[in-house]
Amino acid sequence: MILKIEQDWGRFREIVRGKIKENLRKYIVHSELIGKKGKDLISIPVPQIEVPHFVHSPQKMGGVGQGEGEEGTPIGIGEVDGDRQVGNQAGSHILEVELTLDEIARILGEELELPNIEPKGKENIKSFTGRYTNIHTSGPESLKHTKRTFKEALKRQIITGSYDPQDPVIIPISEDKRYKSREAVEKPAYNAVVIYIMDVSGSMGNEQKEIVRIESFWIDTWLRYQYKDIDTKYIVHDAVAHQVDRDTFFRIRESGGTIISSAYRLCRRMIDELYPPDEWNIYVFHFSDGDNWSRDDTHECIEILEEAFLPAINLFCYGQVESPYGSGQFYYDLEDNLGKEDNLILSKIPDKDAIYDSIKRFLGRGK
Description:
Helix content: 25-40%
Shape: flat
Largest sheet: 6 strands, mixed
Radius of gyration: 32 Å
Number of domains: 3
Number of helices: 11
Strand content: 15-25%
Distance between the termini: 41 Å
Structural class: alpha/beta
CATH class of the largest domain: Alpha Beta
Strand order of the largest sheet: 9-8-7-10-11-12
CATH architecture of the largest domain: 3-Layer(aba) Sandwich
CATH topology of the largest domain: Rossmann fold
């Protein structure tokens, strides 16, 4: 039986979802939301949600305060004495609601019309639940089910005629023993890894890094909704590539030139050593301003993509963040040489407002 308050709460949640969907583009570009993210929840300010309340009709007010009054006494709602301005209109209130990351991911998927991912990987494998709900005839003594064991012994003694109601002694033997066991269930063994690569050369400023931080948060939110377990790796590069942790990835400040192939070589080694493509769903997201050291290095990048990445991984996404110091040529080189590849997706991200469309472009193929 569903209580009335539960129905009201459900309707309220639907109103909140509607408001968030209406303003999703605005929420996506605000980095403040990422700062409000808890372990499993994210706080979102939702404006203009009307909460039902009782209002007294001004025409039918009565009771205290009625009478002739004195001349000059202000009357009516909102009228004031002196220069102070007292309004009679409701203020604008911001309601901050908490949603789970799964709820946010569902809203993101609905609004951007993202298809669910069809993961590759192993077929079903057997794993065990954490609860001991089954009974087996063998097992360790520490898991012996005493009640079931004595019940089996009693049944055996009754059947064989050795049970004496006047002297009810029950002695279990080995075949009577029963043990608790966990239930085996089959579930898909899908593994996923996301590798983020970012250009941190001198031409990538704080504004460009902030765009990468926001976009990678929403990409992560969607992929974690699609996969139960996911591994995340981070690579930064200027002329040399390094694997770093998440905090370093978004805070590091570098300078110098750009050799993109250094990051691609490191990424390839990482996949070869840790993530066999026949067992892992692999996603690589590379963000740069499109400046590279030389045409020869760009040619090497294209070779690595063509020979190592694109035949093996789910998606390779290149996001070009516009910078006043970057040439932007790398985007066109990839487009000219590999633009027809189904699992290579290119996106230009000139500013924060372009993040929404970039996410939809990257994740819209359901790979």
